[in-house]
Amino acid sequence: MRCPHCGHTESKVLDTRDAELGIRRRRQCLRCGNRFSTVERIQAATVSVVKQDGRIEEFSRDKLLAGIRTACAKRPLPADAVEKIVDDIEEELQRRGRAEVTSRLIGELAMGRLRQLDRVAYIRFASVYRDFADEDDFRRAVEGLQGESAGDGSAGQLALLPPDRTGARRRGRPPKR
Ligand SMILES: [Zn+2]
User: Fold this and answer.
1) Which one of 56, 75, 93, 165 has the fewest beta carbons within 10 angstroms of its own beta carbon?
2) Cα of 29 to ligand 1 centre, how many Å?
């Protein structure tokens, strides 16, 4: 178990409890003293993900983690927030007990959690993970965000979107506006 803060491999266990996917342990790094959680997983049934274009691939925790981590980069979030979202989504998928889910569902689950956690991360995710949602979903997300943020001074958050992700890669069509 590597400390996510300093990379040290020794930690002590503060607390152990059952989680849906295995055993969750609260640990404290023996070098830097930071606390983090780990889940020692039991072998969960694999879930296939049906993509927008019809391709099917096995659900990848790492891929989802990477996408959410990218969206949350440099945001002021607790160190274990990203892992926790992915744990939640994985548990939710297991709970549903379906052998196949759509990529759109996974995207929606992630966006639902990010929306509550951090608006900037949420809108970044919507753009980075566009595979998961169609163009209309993305547009609605952006419009919804603009509407919500009107008047509270955070409208400038949209400027944090990397310009190359706001439409340039969109199947050769020029971005609207
Ligand atoms: Zn550490």
Assistant:
1) 56
2) 5
